[in-house]
Predict the 3D structure of the following.
Amino acid sequence: MNAFTNGSPTSLLARDPSSDAHPAGPSDPARGRRWKRLAVGLAIGAPLVLGGCNFYPTYGASRGVTTQGQDTFKLYSGMMTTGIIIGGFVGILILYTVLRYRRRSDDMPKQFHESIPIEILYTAIPVFVVAVLFLFTVLTENNVDATVPNNARITTTGAPVLEVKITAFQWGWRFDYPNNNVSVSGEVTDGPGGLGPQMVLPVGETVQILLVSNDVIHGFYVRDFNFSRYALPGVQNRFDLNIIKPGLFPGQCTQICGLYHSEMLFTVKGVTPSDFATWTTSEIAAGHTLQRYPVPAANTPPPYTHVTPSNALAAPSAKKGSL
């Protein structure tokens, strides 16, 4: 009481700034900046670390052996990387908020009703991200679906165009080369290596595919092409493929089409143009020509083929069309 009446400052206890409930030490702003730099660095660096030194991490996908497949792969990889960056950034912000603003006392924290800049920011950024992804999706789809004109013989690059007509049927594939007078057909696990019939294509040339179905809906899918397309009865699907390297690429039907759907396999073999010319010559010599079949234009499966049951549960005499 005397301290207030006699005005003696020495009678008051010295005020210790460290005794405040919420100290404002000079290190707090620096600590906040360090957290922000760490959050941004981790959010950006995480996908790069996951991808190693490659600009396009695979994330388990095929890089594609066609120009169209590579475009699809780049879109997939870019979307995955974008998702990891955004998800990582949001997760780090949540962790930063939990640690930085965890409860330190029973005092009521500062209350505020709105923040216009923040609201604009978290609305504009998602819209921008979706718009960019949509743009790249449209561009990729246009590249994948682009085809040379029907009956074209030479592309704008000067490379020849190979036309192949693919007919899907229960339960096999038929590959007709109308300009080469070659036709290859097989059912289920017939063919090289027991992997179904084989479609041979030249590397470095434009291949235009006409995909049709002879009976029900089938799915033409080659994983290494990053490509799938339906074979629909009464519909002609046309698309181009440009294989960039030789190899053997397995394919399969991806639409449930009956009893032997799981065995409706095929392979695509990429060879050099000279090897392709040699192959067509050997196929013609072996009698594998369009004239081998009664009505090749009708896409009728070869009359001598049949379906062989793949397990003991199936009847030994089961034939195609017996369901």
Q: What stands out?
A: Confidence is low (pLDDT under 50) at residues 1-27, 294-323. The chain has five helices and ten strands. The two ends are 106 Å apart (CA to CA).
